[in-house]
Specification:
The chain is of the alpha+beta class. Helix content is 43%, strand content 21%.
Length: 126
């Protein structure tokens, strides 16, 4: 059983290179994780009128950034700060969005590796 049953709000600053950074949640909640997982699914009517479940990667990718990001240092072409917002996330270049997603994925993997290490060392109980 976990020692702490609830997510404690905390922020981690990720270095994006070139003096840029993004602050993300250290951990997302169960509810956020479920909404993110659900965002991948979409229902589509087939020509026969049946419902088919498909995957909506675009919706998932945007919601992932909206869920994890807390703040960033990104600036526009006039070197003015761009406030973090859903519209700003939608307007990112594909390369910028990929860099942010990669940084979040690395953070999640690092966190998971740390948990796996503490579990294998006998720190976790069942």
């Amino acid at each position: 059983m976990p020692n702490n049953w609830f997510v404690q709000p905390a922020v981690v600053r990720l270095d994006l290179g070139d003096g840029q950074w993004a602050e993300i949640k250290e951990q997302i909640t169960y509810g956020e994780a479920q909404r993110l997982s659900g965002a991948m699914l979409r229902t589509v009517k087939t020509a026969a009128g049946d419902n088919e479940v498909g995957v909506d990667f675009a919706r998932y990718a945007v919601l992932k950034l909206q869920t994890w990001l807390v703040d960033w240092s990104l600036r526009d072409e006039a070197d003015k700060p761009v406030p973090l917002s859903p519209a700003a996330i939608e307007n990112l270049t594909p390369e910028a969005a990929e860099a942010l997603n990669a940084a979040i994925d690395a953070h999640v993997a690092e966190r998971a590796a740390g948990k796996a290490t503490s579990t294998s060392n006998g720190s976790a109980t069942r």
